[in-house]
């Protein structure tokens, strides 16, 4: 029973973190203040790191603080901290790895849900600037045709991507 509760705590935290990440990405990182760090991620990167990586550091500090609180006060917090860490790992694999290829090998998903996640986040980057972007989540992505529809008529689509977001073509 205890094991089940702990597993549910980890999985529940991963699900909850998707909401936290979505809200942070949409309203903080794309907001006027948070954009100061996130802008670096929507521009061409020079060097291995970008200012936006500081957000990952912030989430890591939260996870470490939860692990510490778990060992000092309430053991179950350790499982919540594990969920936050697991979400960070999934975020790294999907976002930094699959989409932005920040690892030393190249793998682009060709089909299935991973392909949808990949395409949805590419469309997040199709817009120039912080406004009018779509798809802010990292483990849930809306259907790609819906995203393309939302982007239709958006004047800030990067010129080189305009034919790509046309609903008749595949990304
Ligand atoms: Zn963004
Ligand atoms: Zn990105």
Written account of the structure:
The chain has 171 residues and is mostly helical. The chain folds into two domains: 2-99, no CATH class; 112-161, no CATH class. 56% of the residues lie in helices and 0% in strands. The chain has helices spanning 2-29, 35-38, 53-72, 77-99, 112-124, 144-151. The model has no long low-confidence stretch (mean pLDDT 91).
Short description:
By secondary structure, the chain is mainly alpha-helical. 56% of the residues lie in helices and 0% in strands. It has 2 domains: 98 residues, no CATH class; 50 residues, no CATH class.
Keywords:
globular; single chain; 2 domains; 171 residues; mainly alpha; binds zinc ion
Sequence-ordered SSE layout with sheet pairings:
Blueprint: H1 2-29, H2 35-38, H3 53-72, H4 77-99, H5 112-124, H6 144-151
This protein binds zinc ion (ZN) (2 copies).
SS summary, helix count: 6
List the bound ligands: zinc ion
State the distance separating the first and last CA atoms: 46 Å
**Which secondary-structure class do the elements indicate?**
mainly alpha
What is the radius of gyration computed over CA atoms, rounded to a whole number of angstroms?
18 Å
- What is the residue-mean pLDDT, rounded to a whole number? 91
Count all strands and give the number.
Answer: 0
Overall 3D shape: globular
Kindly state the percentage of residues in helix: 55-70%
Largest sheet properties: none
Q: Indicate the low-confidence ranges by residue numbers.
A: none
Beta-strand percentage?
A: under 5%
């Amino acid at each position: 029973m205890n094991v089940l509760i702990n597993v549910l705590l980890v999985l529940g935290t991963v699900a909850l973190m998707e909401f936290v990440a979505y809200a942070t990405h949409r309203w903080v990182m794309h907001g006027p203040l948070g954009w100061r760090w996130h802008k670096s991620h929507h521009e061409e990167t020079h060097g291995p790191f970008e200012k936006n990586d500081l957000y990952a550091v912030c989430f890591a500090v939260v996870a470490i603080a939860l692990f510490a609180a778990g060992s000092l006060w309430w053991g179950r917090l350790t499982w919540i901290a594990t969920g936050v860490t697991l979400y960070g790992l999934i975020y790294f694999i999907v976002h930094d790895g699959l989409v932005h290829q920040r690892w030393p090998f190249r793998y682009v998903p060709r089909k299935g849900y991973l392909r949808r996640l990949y395409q949805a986040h590419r469309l997040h980057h199709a817009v120039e600037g912080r406004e009018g972007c779509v798809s802010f989540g990292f483990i849930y992505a809306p259907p790609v045709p819906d995203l393309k529809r939302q982007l239709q008529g958006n004047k800030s689509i990067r010129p080189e991507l305009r034919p790509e977001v046309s609903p008749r073509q595949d990304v």
